[in-house]
Structure formats: structure tokens, C-alpha cells
Amino acid sequence: MKGPALTKDTGGGTGLDAHLLLDRGSFTLDVALGVRPGEVLALLGPNGAGKTTALRALAGLAPLTGGHLRLDGETLEDPALRRRTPPEARPVGVIFQDYLLFPHLTALENVAFGPRCQGMSRAAARALAAGLLDRMGLADQAGAKPRRLSGGQAQRVALARALATGPRLLLLDEPLAALDARARLDVRAELRRHLAAFEAVAILVTHDPLDAMVLADRLVVIEDGRRVQEGTPAEIARRPRTDYVARLVGLNLYQGEAAGHTVRLAPGLALTTTEAVDGPAFVAFPPSAVTLHRDRPDSSARNAWPAAVTGMESHGDQIRVALTAAGLPLTADLTPVSVAELLLAPGAEVWASVKAAQTHAYPA
Amino acid sequence: MTDHSPAAAGPRDTPGSRTRPGTRSRTRSRSRVPVALVLPALAGLAFLLLPLVALLIRAPWRSLPDQLTSAAVWQALRLSLQTATLATAASLLFGVPLAWLLARTDFPGRRLVRALVTLPLVLPPVVGGVALLLALGRNGVVGRWLDSAFGVTLPFTTSGVVVAETFVAMPFLVITVEGTLRAADARYEEAAATLGASRFTAFRRVTLPMIAPGVAAGAVLAWARALGEFGATITFAGSFPGRTQTMPLAVYLALQDDPAAAVALSLVLLAVSLAVLAGLRERWTGAL
């Protein structure tokens, strides 16, 4: 995707153009990525999907077995051409999941480490580091060893350390995973600000959809080493294409054969939708669109099926009820009062109905 | 909450707790220590301590001041301390990079090399001395060339003592440092690489400071081993007072004609060993 007119002033970079191919026998990563300068891309996927492997490949810590990696027009790696720039020579900054701040160095020395390695004088490197820490609001902590920093402070030092070398590709591995819930909120907002100000390519890896949606401009969903969906956070949230994504964004998702306003999901199970689609299609609707009844609703309700309760758990101030209808899983959000009135319990037989107006159908 | 609930086991087995899972509950449920283990254990302890006690009992305390102020004792002690320290320095210089190579790289025959490195640990030191003579002796494989090209002869010199001590002491350092390196998180080196550090810079500025306790522990082990070296030293360097006669050699020779002097010298070595152990154990040798 190329759009020079859309980008911020980026110093003439063209961004990242990568096809990451890593064959490890039992596991194969095969993901193509294109990211414009100034754009923040999130790699979202379950554990073991290959997100961290992709990040390591971009940083040069895991060699590609195929494909290519180009950054701002410069080829960093291309196995077919036998070209490979080692990690220390790549203009890449990495923020590791547990930060990996050097424990024997102070925050300032950690941040000055990269510029020193690039040949900057000791005084200049320390001045640069002090400036970066100041910008992160950490001037007071410059002399502190990492073990004395809080999780949020360590995260900012890691960010300052990664930015100190002036990278053209910034990689963040689960940047908020090591923080407790309270710190996450603050750090997420702060990180968003820093990422928005970063003018080169930024890629973050996360299994947390909220982090991905708040921090990234665009999401690439990876499952089993392959890209399964790509789009803006809004597109992904509205039109999930795999069960994993649907679960992440909290939607019921079905795949079927559409003809006009009817999507046939399984033998004897069809959904009426407001949108007209033809051919293979997805239907998605939120658990709140599902209502449950003890008896069969009146005949005017078109989307109604017998269902069996398989489990219940509290979900905010609602109860999320898991059901099976004609062999397909279905979740419904009910108020505790409704659950009590319906006498719901695992194994209970009920009728489930879905309001057509709250369904969303789109081509598969 | 009853005692049978899984949560009841929680506080005992938290990951951060110092006791290993199960250790405490096992000692609690079987509080009696079996006699079949205690008796051999006590016998072993007595066996280890008895010679040291005997040394203290039979020490010629009255003539000790005279013995210890003799020039010969100080000569031998100074030589021992100097050569052991030089051997430790040489072990550090070559052994730490060797340990890094074994722990951080993969090359064909790495396992064989590792086995060969540990060989001097089990090799009788006298055999080591003979082997050193064949390698570095005046007519040795390399020694002949050293002699003709540089005029360097190692056998029966103080340098030869250092060589012999390094040969037996370095494996201790290599094994200790290699173990520490394997236990250290290699991802810090990756972090350094992403910051532009070459592998050598990452080693020097990140790895080495982080494994310093292990290196210190290895150095102490190597130093102690070098200080007590006897077999390889007497075979390769002989026993010339002031030049190659280290403390262990002096002790052995004194035992032939002046047992009281031998005991006095032994006491000095014991004191030096204890001082090193006491001085370093708490601070540095946690990795041992």
C-alpha cells in the first residue's frame, strides 16, 4: 500500500516492505507486511501464532529462510541474494517484553548504551540520554539502577533506550504485558502519545486487542504463522473473519452461504439479515443482540432456534451465557435478573432469538 | 475454605518462596532423620575434620615463631602466592573467552572440546607434568621451537611453575564460568545487539559485568587449585628453592628431614586457604 500523499514528513523514507518467511520444521511463519513511515502497525494473534518470531526476524535476531526485508528502500535481508544485515547494523530499535534493561547500568547509562555503540563520544551520548529521559519525565531517575524503577518507569527507559539510536523501525514486543492493571492505563496513554510522535515505522506485537486498538493505526491478525486478517481497528472490530478475532472483539461469528437477506449457516439453521449479500458470507452480531426465552417466541421472530445452555460466567454487570444451537456455539449477554427469571443453568433447554437489525453480514 | 481446597496449598508453593516446592512438607511429614544416613554423614564429617584437628594439635606452637620467620618459609610462600596469582590471571585471560565459546557458540566438535577442557580436572597432575615436558620441554614438540626461535625455556623455571599451575587450574575456571554463562539470560546480549553492539562489545559491556560473580568464583577456585599444585609442578618445574619450590613442594621436602617445619608450613597454607575462603565466600562465591 503506497500513499506518499497520506504520510507525515518522514525524511523521504518509504517505510517497511517485508515478506517474512521462516521455516522451522514444525512451525512456518509466512507473513507479508507493508508499513508506511509514521504508521503504527499491530501484530495481533494468540500465543504461539508467530508474532514474536516475526518481531525477532525484523530485528535480525532470527534469520529468514525466504522472502525479503526492505526498509526505506534498503535491503536488510534477502536469503535468495545471500544478503543479511546483522542486528547490530540495522536501524532498528526494540522494546522487549520484559524490557531487558541492563541491570548493572543506571537508567542514563542504559539509554546512552546505543549511541556509544554507534561511536558517539561519552559526553555526547550521556547528554543525548539525559535529554531523552527528561522528555520521558524521568530526569529524576537518571542515576537509578533498573531494579529500583517501577514497571512504568522501566518501560519508559526501555522506550528512551530504543529511540536513542534514531531507529527507522521501532519494534515493541507486548509493550504493556509486564505492567499491572493500574500502570497499564497510564502507560498505554503515554505510549500512544510517543508512538504518534514517532515518524518512522513502528510495529507492536500484542495478544491484547485493547492495546492493539488503542495504540495502532492498522492491525494484522496472525494465526498459525499466517496473516488471517488485516485492517483498521474499526474494520477488524466490525468485520471479524476468524473465530479468534471474533472472540477478541466479543462478537458471535458464523460463516455460511448467503442469498439475499438469508445466510444459511448449517442444515436447518438460517439467519435473516438486514444487509443483502450473495455467495460465501460471514454474519456477526454481539452477544447483546441475543435474547433467550423459556418457550418458543411468537412466529413473527424469524431468527429463533432451540438452544442448550453449556456455561455461564459474569461479564461486567451482565452474565455471559454460552449455548449451542444446531451444533454451533452461541453467546448471549443477559442481566442477572433475566438469568434468574429464565431459571438458566448449564443443560437448560431454551429458545434463542437474534434481532436481524443487529446482525452484520459481509462477503467471506 | 477447607484444607482440601487447592487454594490452601497456595501460600506454600508460591513461585517466589525460597523453599523449593515440596521440601518443607516432606520434612514436616517425616521429621525423623534416618540413622542410616546420619551415621555415615557424621563419620564423613569427622574424617574430613580429623586431619585438620591433628595438624593443630601437633603443631610445634613453641618453635612456631622461629619457623615462620625463617627466610625459606617466606621465600616459598611468596613464590606460591605470586605463581598462583599469575596462573589465575592467565586462566582468566584464556579461560573466560574459552568458556564463552563453549557456552555461546555452536561449532562442530564442541562437545568433544568441552570434554577435553575438563580432562585436566581428572588427569593425575603428574601425568600433566610429563605431558607438559613433552610439549614444552627443551626437546618438546613446541618447546624445541620456543628455545631455538626465542631462546625461551620453560621447564625448571618460575615461568614453568606458572604454566604447570595454569594447566591444572584453568579447567576449574572454564567450567565455572561456562555454567554461569549458560544460566545467564542470553537475551540481554540480543538487546545489546539491537542497540548496535557487536558481539564483542556486548560481551565486554553487558555479559561480563553480569557474570562477574561467577567469574570471581571460578577465579577463586582456580587460585586455590594453583596454590596447592604439587604433581605437575614438581614434574615440569622441579624443586629449586627460590625459583620453583612452592609451598606444597617445600612442605613435602621438609617432611623428610624437619617434620616440625613441614607442620609449620602446612599451618601457613591452611591459614591462607581459610582466609581466602572466609574473605570471598560471602561476597563473591555465591555461584559456587
TrEMBL record, chain A:
SMART domains: AAA. The gene is modC. InterPro entries: AAA+_ATPase, ABC_SmlMolc_Importer, ABC_transporter-like_ATP-bd, ABC_transporter-like_CS, Mo/tungstate-bd_C_term_dom, Mop_domain, P-loop_NTPase, Transp-assoc_OB_typ1. Pfam families: ABC_tran (PF00005), TOBE (PF03459). It comes from the Bacteria. It comes from Actinacidiphila bryophytorum. Keywords: ATP-binding, Molybdenum, Nucleotide-binding, Transport. Residues 1-249 form the ABC transporter domain. One of its GO terms (biological process) is molybdate ion transport. PROSITE patterns: ABC_TRANSPORTER_1, ABC_TRANSPORTER_2, MOP. One of its GO terms (molecular function) is ATP hydrolysis activity. Residues 298-363 form the Mop domain. This is Molybdenum import ATP-binding protein ModC. PANTHER family: SPERMIDINE/PUTRESCINE IMPORT ATP-BINDING PROTEIN POTA (PTHR42781), SPERMIDINE_PUTRESCINE IMPORT ATP-BINDING PROTEIN POTA (PTHR42781:SF4).
Automatic annotation (TrEMBL), chain B:
It is found in: Cell membrane. Keywords: Cell membrane, Membrane, Molybdenum, Transmembrane, Transmembrane helix, Transport. Residues 77-278 form the ABC transmembrane type-1 domain. It holds the Pfam family BPD_transp_1. Its main location: membrane. GO terms for cellular component: plasma membrane. It comes from the Bacteria. InterPro entries: MetI-like, MetI-like_sf, ModB_ABC, NifC_ABC_porter. The chain crosses the membrane at residues 33-59, 79-103, 115-136, 156-177, 206-224, 260-280. Residues 1-29 are annotated as: Disordered. It is a multi-pass membrane protein. One of its GO terms (molecular function) is molybdate ion transmembrane transporter activity. Residues 10-20 have a biased composition (Low complexity). NCBIfam families: Mo_ABC_porter (TIGR01581), modB_ABC (TIGR02141). Belongs to the binding-protein-dependent transport system permease family. CysTW subfamily. Part of the binding-protein-dependent transport system for molybdenum; probably responsible for the translocation of the substrate across the membrane. PANTHER family: MOLYBDENUM TRANSPORT SYSTEM PERMEASE PROTEIN MODB. This is Molybdenum transport system permease. It comes from Actinacidiphila bryophytorum. The gene is modB.
